[in-house]
Specification:
Gyrase A, domain 2, four-stranded antiparallel beta sheet
């Protein structure tokens, strides 16, 4: 199995299976700083990224948006002064798929790149 950061998202449709509890536990171990949350009955990965100012937060949000578009898998992004909250889940299945963990790892990599 290759590292999550080296993988790409696969197309999901209604009926695509969500990750199993064992898969979720293993994959979450790769991104321990991300929270598993339930919002409106859908399990999601969520993380808050902090910045010195709005411009840095906005630049990060734009980079995550570009990454999402390139992978054709799109998060919820909340941009505020000095912070960005990113939530990943697979809309088509109303929960978590391997794609979400791949994108969480890639989001962390974007954050790690100095401006």
């Amino acid at each position: 199995m290759s590292k999550l950061a080296d993988q790409h998202c696969e197309a999901c449709r209604k009926g695509t299976p969500k990750v199993t509890d064992d898969e979720k536990e293993f994959l979450h171990g790769e991104i321990p700083d991300w929270s598993l949350v339930d919002e409106e009955g859908q399990e999601k990965l969520k993380k808050v990224f902090k910045f010195k100012n709005f411009a840095q937060a906005q630049a990060f949000a734009n980079q995550v948006s570009d990454l999402a578009e390139a992978e054709n898998h799109h998060p919820a992004i909340l941009l505020e002064y000095g912070k960005v909250t990113v939530s990943w889940w697979t809309h088509a299945i109303g929960g978590l798929h391997r794609n979400d963990f791949i994108m969480a790892v890639k989001t962390d990599a974007v954050f790690a790149v100095p401006e």
